[in-house]
Amino acid sequence: MNYHKLWVWRESLALAVVIMKDVSSCKHYFFKDQVGRSALSVPSNIAEAMVRDTAADRRRILYYAIGSSAELETQLKIGKDLNWVIHPDISKWLNTNTRIQISLHNLVKNLQQSR
């Protein structure tokens, strides 16, 4: 499957770029590094999953993407509460991330049904 055509890959890629640009100025290196890793992992894991040969491999790696998305949500909420991430669109980022998680769960479900 061509992952470039997947909404969830394109949206998670766009979200990662926006977040990376905003947190690049964060003075808390450990936080910036962790947010960056989780944000980059979501589209990276989707891409990796979709080039795998078996549906079982795809599902397993998509669960990694779901986990990274949950990490990103947690880190953004912590960053917001600590005022380490101050951006007018942070609520929009969190909503987009939730839609990404839902879409990933649906993709996993579709892969299970196509066995």
% residues in beta strands: under 5%
CATH architecture: Up-down Bundle
How far apart are the termini? 15 Å
Q: Looking at CATH, which topology would you report? A: de novo design (two linked rop proteins)
Total helical elements: 4
DSSP E strands, number: 0
Order of helices and strands: HHHH
User: CATH superfamily name?
Assistant: 23S rRNA-intervening sequence
Overall description:
This protein is mainly α and 115 residues long. Helix content is 78%, strand content 0%. This is Four helix bundle protein. InterPro entries: 23S_rRNA-intervening_sequence (IPR012657), 23S_rRNA_IVS_sf (IPR036583). It holds the Pfam family 23S_rRNA_IVP. It comes from Idiomarina seosinensis.
Short description:
The protein has 115 residues and is mainly α. The protein has helices at 7-23, 29-50, 55-81, 90-113. Helix 1 (7-23) packs antiparallel against helix 4 and helix 3 runs antiparallel to helix 4.
